């Protein structure tokens, strides 16, 4: 016997949560794209397309205010953002490549400094992941240790079944609590056949070996050969579920303004430009090297995790078709040869 | 016109047309590199995924054997000749594969003294069209998958190139969707049009892919990167986004060659080429200027003539 929920009841769950003042975020059509957006009702939820941007923005928005300042009677008054007002949130309909990323990012946002903007949102959110049945030839989650039915990062995990229902598996206490609170929408029954999971076009990678190769090849002709064509935009980093660099800018005027945190990317030439004018990453392939190093070496060095979920977004979006799955495969082969 | 009648029958073009272009490119590239007539050929190489190609900076005759031309060859490669990409190509003469729309950018860059004609060898492609962004590429080039810019292309046949490859297959007449959309926006009230663009700009995440692929965005210090003081808000919010896209459109007026790369690469599907085209209309009306495949020494906004309209000076 398994715990099941029909599609109708899944949408009713969204309705019930919204009615209960919970912010429900899920894939929703917006013009020509699907994005993770607040759902006004269960009918807004779309499960047939991977959103163009990842779900990281739920915790790490494109742009957010982190304080405001105002000069009054000659005195500068600084106001913090009241984070207690961040709402209870349920992220629903995230495939493993998106559901899996926030828990990877917890490590860096609670490392040498607790980023309460990220962490407060994490504490207040429940992630309802869903097995992926819609992959394409850019997908490579299996190659980086996830899978179309990986539960990592989900609090509650749904598996689409033939006939339209979902098998529900609580993964954490938060997930169980969500089920308990809305028990009437779930039922016990025999789970039928699951819908076929998404195919993966790439083989499994030996990530420890890749890291070992990266340890010894900071300088290597590979970087020029793969990344001289890189144009230096941030499309890959911004739509990535795991890239988490940000810039901070004071905007407004010296007497009245806001300090804002917004996405930044190692692909930009300005990213490592020193005040002196010296830039240690003076050419583009060094910047792209950092992208690979950060994801498959540095993050592992520091936190024991890989900073990539294999969603394939960067492959689909790269203006010049740089294919990280192909690059990893190349490194994997080099690593096997020693 | 119904969709069926409009469908580009790939079967009649492919494989002979694309194969012929590919073969001609390879033969010429191998020859140029073997004879050391050029240090590199900037062309297209096949991508791993079906229906994809990637820019290739080819420096050996062996690599040159891999060069291709297909509807997936979307990039405007002239970008790699600009100072924004300095250092990726060795010093010396470079051969470049260019479609008509790419040639207009090359001509513009020559006009702006960024590229010297004697430093490049242009291999022009008689181009039937390329894929649009996010199109389904499995069925080849069809009415559904062709880029919007190609539907009303006026430069299928390159001019002024060192070598022309390909014989243009018969091309069907396609409805000018972009011109229709431009006309639709023109018919709106200013308030409605403003609302349309506000919504479009609100989608921007400031990844700057539009800037980075533009052959004309070679400024060493972009206005939108200035932060002491900020010239415009760098955070992806409505004010800064709007300022950025207006600055971008204005700065490209009279320079843009219409390759529409900015629009193709936008991950948020902002129809940026509508702005470029609107600017082009303005330039046509004011200065009778159009981007062309032939270099012009000075663009309309960098040239002074005594009979220029000065009525705006009050």
Automatic annotation (TrEMBL), chain A:
This chain's protein is named Heterodisulfide reductase subunit A
**Superkingdom in the source lineage:** Bacteria
* One Pfam family of this chain: Fer4_22
Q: Which Gene3D superfamilies match?
A: Alpha-helical ferredoxin (1.10.1060.10)
Q: Which UniProt keywords apply?
A: Iron, Iron-sulfur, Metal-binding
Where does the record place the 4Fe-4S ferredoxin-type domain?
Answer: 219-251, 299-327
* This protein's record includes keyword Iron: yes
InterPro entries, alphabetized: 4Fe4S_Fe-S-bd, 4Fe4S_Fe_S_CS, Helical_ferredxn
Recorded GO molecular functions are: iron-sulfur cluster binding; metal ion binding
From TrEMBL, chain B:
Outline the extent of the 4Fe-4S ferredoxin-type domain: 194-216, 247-277
Q: Which PROSITE patterns match?
A: 4FE4S_FER_1, 4FE4S_FER_2
Keyword list, A-Z: Iron, Iron-sulfur, Metal-binding
Domain of life of the organism in this record?
Bacteria
| InterPro entries assigned | 4Fe4S_Fe-S-bd, 4Fe4S_Fe_S_CS, Helical_ferredxn
The GO terms this record gives for MF are:
iron-sulfur cluster binding; metal ion binding
The UniProt entry, under Gene3D superfamilies, shows: Alpha-helical ferredoxin
Recorded protein name is: Fe-S oxidoreductase
Annotated organism of origin: Geomonas limicola
Print the organism lineage: Bacteria, Pseudomonadati, Thermodesulfobacteriota, Desulfuromonadia, Geobacterales
């Amino acid at each position: 016997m398994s715990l099941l929920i029909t599609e109708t009841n899944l949408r009713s769950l969204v309705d019930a949560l919204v009615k209960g003042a919970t912010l429900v975020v899920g894939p929703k059509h917006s013009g020509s794209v699907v994005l993770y957006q607040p759902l006004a009702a269960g009918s807004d939820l779309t499960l047939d397309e991977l959103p163009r941007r990842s779900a990281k923005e739920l915790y790490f928005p494109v742009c957010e205010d982190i304080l405001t300042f105002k000069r009054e009677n000659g005195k500068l008054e600084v106001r913090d953002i009241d984070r207690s007002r961040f709402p209870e949130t349920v992220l629903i309909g995230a495939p493993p490549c998106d559901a899996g990323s926030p828990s990877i990012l917890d490590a860096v946002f609670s490392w040498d400094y607790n980023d309460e903007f990220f962490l407060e949102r994490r504490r207040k959110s429940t992630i309802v992941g869903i097995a992926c049945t819609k992959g394409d030839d850019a997908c490579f989650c299996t190659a980086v240790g996830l899978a179309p039915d990986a539960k990592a990062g989900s609090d509650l995990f749904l598996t689409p079944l033939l006939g339209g229902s979902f098998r529900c598996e609580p993964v954490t206490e938060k997930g169980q609590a969500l089920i308990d609170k809305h028990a009437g929408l779930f039922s016990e029954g025999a789970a039928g056949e699951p819908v076929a999971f998404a195919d993966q076009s790439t083989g499994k990678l030996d990530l420890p070996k890749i890291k070992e190769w990266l340890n010894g090849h900071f300088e290597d002709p590979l970087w020029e050969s793969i990344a001289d064509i890189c144009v230096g935009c941030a499309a890959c980093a911004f739509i990535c579920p795991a890239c988490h660099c940000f810039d901070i800018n004071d905007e407004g005027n010296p007497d009245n303004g806001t300090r804002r945190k917004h996405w930044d990317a190692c692909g930009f030439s300005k990213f490592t430009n020193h005040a002196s004018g010296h830039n240690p990453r003076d050419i583009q392939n060094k910047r792209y090297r950092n992208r690979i190093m950060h994801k498959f070496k540095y993050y592992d060095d520091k936190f024991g995790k890989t900073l990539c979920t294999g969603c394939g977004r960067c492959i689909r979006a790269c203006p010049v078709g740089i294919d990280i799955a192909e690059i990893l495969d190349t490194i994997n082969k080099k690593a096997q040869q020693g | 016109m119904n969709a069926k009648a409009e469908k580009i029958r790939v079967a009649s073009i492919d494989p002979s047309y694309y194969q012929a272009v590919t073969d001609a490119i390879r033969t010429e590239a191998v020859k140029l590199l073997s004879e050391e007539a050029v240090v590199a050929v900037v062309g297209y190489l096949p991508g791993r995924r079906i229906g994809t190609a990637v820019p290739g900076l080819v420096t050996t005759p062996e690599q040159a054997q891999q060069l291709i031309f297909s509807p997936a060859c979307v990039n405007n490669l002239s970008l790699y000749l600009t100072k924004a990409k300095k250092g990726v190509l060795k010093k010396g003469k470079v051969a470049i594969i260019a479609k008509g729309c790419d040639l207009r950018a090359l001509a513009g860059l020559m006009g702006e003294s960024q590229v010297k004609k004697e430093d490049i060898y242009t291999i022009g492609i008689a181009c039937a069209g390329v894929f649009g962004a996010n199109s389904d590429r499995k069925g080849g080039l069809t009415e559904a998958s062709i880029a919007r810019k190609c539907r009303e292309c006026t430069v299928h046949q390159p001019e002024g190139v060192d070598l022309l490859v390909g014989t243009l297959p018969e091309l069907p007449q396609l409805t000018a969707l972009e011109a229709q959309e431009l006309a639709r926006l023109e018919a709106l009230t200013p308030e409605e049009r403003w609302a349309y663009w506000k919504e479009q700009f609100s989608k921007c995440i400031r990844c700057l892919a539009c800037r980075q692929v533009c052959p004309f965005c070679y400024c060493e210090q972009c206005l939108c990167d200035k932060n002491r003081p900020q010239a415009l808000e760098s955070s992806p919010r409505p004010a800064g986004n709007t300022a950025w896209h207006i600055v971008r459109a204005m700065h490209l007026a009279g320079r843009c060659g219409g390759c529409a790369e900015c629009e193709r690469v936008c991950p948020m599907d902002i129809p940026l080429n509508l702005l470029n085209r609107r600017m082009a209309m303005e330039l046509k009306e004011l200065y009778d200027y159009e981007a062309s495949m032939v270099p012009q020494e000075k663009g309309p906004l960098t040239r002074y003539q005594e009979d220029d309209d000065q009525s705006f000076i009050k």
